[in-house]
């Protein structure tokens, strides 16, 4: 054995001995101090490295985060638009389903559905504009209803639109029949959009909640279309007739889709009027 | 050729009036957007085409509304006449002129509507019309008259550039 290999063997033996002593716990306090110094050094280097890494990569992250944020915001706005559109479709579907139910339960009439696209520009008049016209066989005088009740009748028609006079219009007057009292009366509109009953005989007893339907007299409307209920009565002895306020069955502020009764032709009784 | 801008603008005003403004109610009254547009357009110093605009606006509204067409025609021409008169007299205070046009124009238009519909047999009560339609309509027209005037002033500057006018 030459001197070089003897030195190597001695070094290995010393190191191995030290390791064996260390593993055996004989260098406990010294190894703890040494390891704590190492850990602190490791921690310091690691934290500095992370700081430097953040410093170098942060701007790129902000740019990518902003891009991602923009992307997500656009997705959110798209989804919100979709939600609104779907809510509108659900609302329309519910209305249409109700109208289909109504048309099935009243098979004697034929209906054409139309969307409400506008109202009369003048506050003195209560008219709506619908998106069906003479191209869809809509004619002047046809009654317009919803599943809740009578809306009005077609006043004028062009090719793809029609104007409908609501029953709340101040110039509107409709012959109605009070179901419980079994009597006729006249329904009048007003500037406020309220409707009232007039020409009720003083002999007749009417109650709040009495249902009223179209009577069909005069030929302007078919009979038995629901209009609304009596709310309050006014009965003065010195007047010829009783009057009453009416709650219409239809909510005229929320009209979206209506049905035009296309198989009804109003009767023109003008030549018969003396 | 400059008057071509009247077609899309008045058409848009009539559509907005029919679809949106008529649903923004105060009691039973609402603003009259075409009336305000006509009044504000007439008050602009450079404008020389107000009568054409009134004719076009009348035709459009008369086509959409169930109101008898003479009411619309006379009403809008009256608005232009009032605005032209005020433009010469109150030229230093354009907003005051606009308020005056909105006020007088609304009153004239509502009076004509009331009178003609009453003659035709619609059972109106004066108190109802004044309290529920005219006064709320006046208030809304006055409120809308400021933005409408500002918009029409910018439009008149775009349609009639200053150098051409001078």
Account of the 3D structure:
The complex is a heterodimer of chains A (274) and B (166). Chain A is α+β, with helices and mostly antiparallel strands. Helices cover 36% and strands 27% of the residues of chain A. In chain A, the strands form two sheets. A six-stranded antiparallel barrel of chain A has the order 1-2-5-4-3-12. A six-stranded antiparallel barrel of chain A has the order 6-7-8-11-10-9. The longest helix of chain A has 78 residues, at 28-105. Chain A is rod-shaped and about 150 Å long. The relative contact order of chain A is 0.11. Chain B starts with 5 loop residues before the first helix and ends with a helix. Chain B has one domain (2-165). Chain B is mainly alpha-helical. The mean pLDDT of chain B is 89. Chain B is globular and about 50 Å long. The chains are: A alpha+beta (274), B mainly alpha (166). Chain A binds chain B through residues 117-125, 127, 129, 155-156, 163, 165, 170-171, 188, 190-193, 253, and chain B through 14-15, 17-19, 21-23, 25, 27-30, 32, 34, 61, 64-67, 110, 113-114, 117, 120-125, 128-129, 132-133, 137.
């Amino acid at each position: 054995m030459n001197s070089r290999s003897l030195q190597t063997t001695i070094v290995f033996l010393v190191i191995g001995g030290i390791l064996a002593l260390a593993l055996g716990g004989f260098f406990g306090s010294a190894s703890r101090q040494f390891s704590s110094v190492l850990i602190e050094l490791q921690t310091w280097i690691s934290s500095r490295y992370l700081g430097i890494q953040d410093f170098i990569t942060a701007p790129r992250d902000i740019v990518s985060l902003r891009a991602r944020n923009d992307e997500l915001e656009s997705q959110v706005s798209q989804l919100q638009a979709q939600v609104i559109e779907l809510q509108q479709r659900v609302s329309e579907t519910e209305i249409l389903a109700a109208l289909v139910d109504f048309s099935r339960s009243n098979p004697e009439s034929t209906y054409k559905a139309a969307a409400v696209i506008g109202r009369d520009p003048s506050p003195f008049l209560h008219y709506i504009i619908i998106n069906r016209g003479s191209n869809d066989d809509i004619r002047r005088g046809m009654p317009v209803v919803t599943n809740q009740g009578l809306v009005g009748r077609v006043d004028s028609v062009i090719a793809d639109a029609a104007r409908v006079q609501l029953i709340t219009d101040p110039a509107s007057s409709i012959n109605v029949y009070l179901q419980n009292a079994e009597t006729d009366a006249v329904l009048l509109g007003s500037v406020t959009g309220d409707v009232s009953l007039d020409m009720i005989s003083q002999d007749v007893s009417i109650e709040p909640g009495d249902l009223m339907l179209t009577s069909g007299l005069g030929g302007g409307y078919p009979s038995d279309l629901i209009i609304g209920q009596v709310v309050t009565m006014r009965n003065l002895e010195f007047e010829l007739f009783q009057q009453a306020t009416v709650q219409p069955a239809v909510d005229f502020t929320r009209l979206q889709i209506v049905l035009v009764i296309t198989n009804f032709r109003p009767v023109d009784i003008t030549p018969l009027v003396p | 050729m400059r008057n071509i801008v009247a077609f899309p603008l008045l058409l848009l005003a009539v559509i907005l009036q029919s679809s949106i403004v008529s649903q923004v109610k105060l009691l039973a009254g609402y603003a009259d957007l075409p009336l305000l547009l006509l009044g504000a357009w007439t008050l602009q110093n450079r404008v020389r085409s107000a009568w054409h605009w009134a004719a076009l606006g009348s035709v459009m509204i008369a086509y959409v509304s169930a109101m008898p067409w003479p009411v619309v025609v006379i009403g809008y021409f009256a608005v232009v006449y009032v605005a032209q008169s005020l433009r010469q007299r109150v030229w230093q205070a354009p907003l005051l002129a606009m308020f005056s046009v909105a006020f007088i124009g609304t009153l004239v238009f509502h009076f004509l509507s009331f009178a003609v519909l009453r003659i035709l047999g619609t059972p109106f009560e004066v108190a109802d019309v004044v309290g529920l339609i005219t006064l709320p309509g006046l208030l809304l027209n006055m409120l809308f008259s400021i933005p409408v005037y500002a918009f029409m002033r910018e439009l008149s500057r775009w349609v009639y550039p200053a150098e051409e006018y001078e």
